[in-house]
């Protein structure tokens, strides 16, 4: 598969880079603040590498889910400004993606200069399911450049114009961030060092249940926390009150429990739960047994006994993949489980991988040193789809080069 070196001498060449700059924003006193710039920082090395090589770097990215039309709330302008600070150089900003501003901005670039195009999802062609609509938009993007570098790992599982179609139209290569992510995922799937422990949590329950199928063939232990817990507890016949529940997944959870037992894979479920009367209500937080959740309560974290058990189960692991917070870590009373798992990962003698936007944010928010983890992935969905054994369109298209 082609890396940036395969593109040859880049001096003076216009290089379109698809980065993942989809950061959380917050409005503070009328101005937009970036609450976690992890993805921007992760994008810097490839952009810098191209700029140092004398390329005219044109960055394309999305922010949030605008509806295929311009929406100032999702402008990349504040992100471009932060990228400039991190790069330590001026970053030009085009107020459209493929329009007049984009053409003029790109034409004005000198060798080594960097520009960011406005949110690629302001154009309906980006995410269209109609191949022709996408292709036509990708053609416009391709006209802005002489080569393409795919470095937005968080989107490589999407068949979108700036991820997939544009790579069919330009000499294309994989950026260092995507290359590193794929390398780590290979280490998780091809002959992982054992014991191999997987920790799953978070709130996107049905998205994540699919990965268990594949993991049951690979992992030695599966620790389950977060919102996913309650569908499993209910599948075992317990009351889960008002907790997050996916009723239509109960049969699947039952099947996983049986299959795990048959394969000798240990599924570890919490034995105690921190519940509250309503979502995020710290004042009413209390610990109950996992099989005795009151009908009017909702589970917002794994309990302290479970947190200790999860940490102990991670103790001798040689490979760990963790995706999804153990609880509503954004509120301190429900952060204990996530803190315990994150802490255990920092002491692993082997490869520890954190996947998922909120999991990565939790690690930083709870004050852990990112360097203490083997790898913090920038893409939750993409990692999960890879681990599920699905083909990632944004990677497959690069393999054609
Ligand atoms: P990631 O981005 O790491 O893949 P998700 O997006 O699936 O993770 O889930 C993250 C969210 O899950 C967090 O905002 C957290 O508050 C929430 N969460 C964790 N546990 C629970 C729970 N028991 N009930 C409701 N939400 C939960
Ligand atoms: Mg998330």
Give the arrangement of secondary structure elements.
Blueprint: E1 14-18, E2 25-28, E3 31-34, H1 38-52, E4 56-60, H2 77-87, E5 91-94, H3 100-107, E6 114-117, H4 131-142, E7 147-150, E8 172-174, H5 176-189, E9 196-200, H6 205-215, E10 221-224, H7 229-235, H8 250-263, E11 266-268, E12 272-276, E13 286-289, E14 298-302, H9 304-314, E15 319-323, H10 336-346, E16 351-355, H11 357-365, E17 375-376, H12 380-387, H13 393-396
Parallel strand pairs: 1-4, 1-7, 4-6, 5-6, 7-8, 9-10, 9-15, 10-11, 15-16, 16-17
Antiparallel strand pairs: 2-3, 12-13, 12-14
Bound molecules: adenosine-5'-diphosphate (ADP) and magnesium ion (MG).
Indicate the low-confidence ranges by residue numbers.
none
Strand order of the largest sheet: 5-6-4-1-7-8
Q: Shape from CA axes?
A: globular
- Number of beta-strand segments: 17
Mean of all residue-level pLDDT scores: 95
* Gyration radius from CA atoms, angstroms: 22 Å
Which quaternary structure do these chains form? single chain
Bound molecules: adenosine-5'-diphosphate, magnesium ion
Helix content: 25-40%
What share of residues are in beta strands? 15-25%
| Major beta sheet summary | 6 strands, parallel
Number of helices: 13
SSE string: EEEHEHEHEHEEHEHEHHEEEEHEHEHEHH
Query: Given the helix and strand composition, which structural class is it?
Result: alpha/beta
Distance between the termini: 7 Å
